[in-house]
Amino acid sequence: MTNPNEQFQRLEEKLSKAIEIFKQTQAEKRALEQRLEKIRSETKDRSQLISAMERELIALRREREEVRERIQKLLDRIEVLTSPDSGG
Questions:
Q1: Contact predicate 82/88, CB 8 Å
Q2: What is the pTM for the complete model shown?
Q3: Would the pLDDT of 1 be above 80?
Q4: What is the pLDDT of residue 30?
Q5: pLDDT bracket for residue 88 (50, 70, 90)
């Protein structure tokens, strides 16, 4: 039979090991939580950037269409001025 002191010592060693594992797990958990928060922040920033870029793209497309329409009107006016039956 084993000595009660030896049993107590083994129990104490196991508890110490369990405490170390717990501490390590807690540290890893904190590190993962910090990493997750950083990723969430980056995701939010990127989402805002994407939204801004989408708005800019819509504005640029609208502007392009307006320019296209203005050019077409100018071409139509030039065509009227240069057509043979316009007297020009």
A1: yes
A2: 0.58
A3: no
A4: 98
A5: low
Rounded CA separation 33/60 (Å): 40
Give the Cα separation of 81 and 79 in Å (integer): 5
Widest distance between CA atoms in the chain: 125
Half-sphere exposure of 13 (CA within 13 A, CB side): 6
For residue 54, CA distances in Å to 44, 57, 62, 65, 67 come to 15, 5, 12, 17, 20
**DSSP state at residue 3:** -
Do 18 and 24 contact (CB within 8 A), yes or no?
no
Q: Distances from the Cα of 59 to the Cαs of 50, 54, 56, 66, 68, in angstroms?
A: 14, 9, 5, 11, 14
pLDDT above 90 for 56: yes
Task: List Cβ neighbours of 81 (8 Å cut-off, separation of 6 or more).
Answer: 88
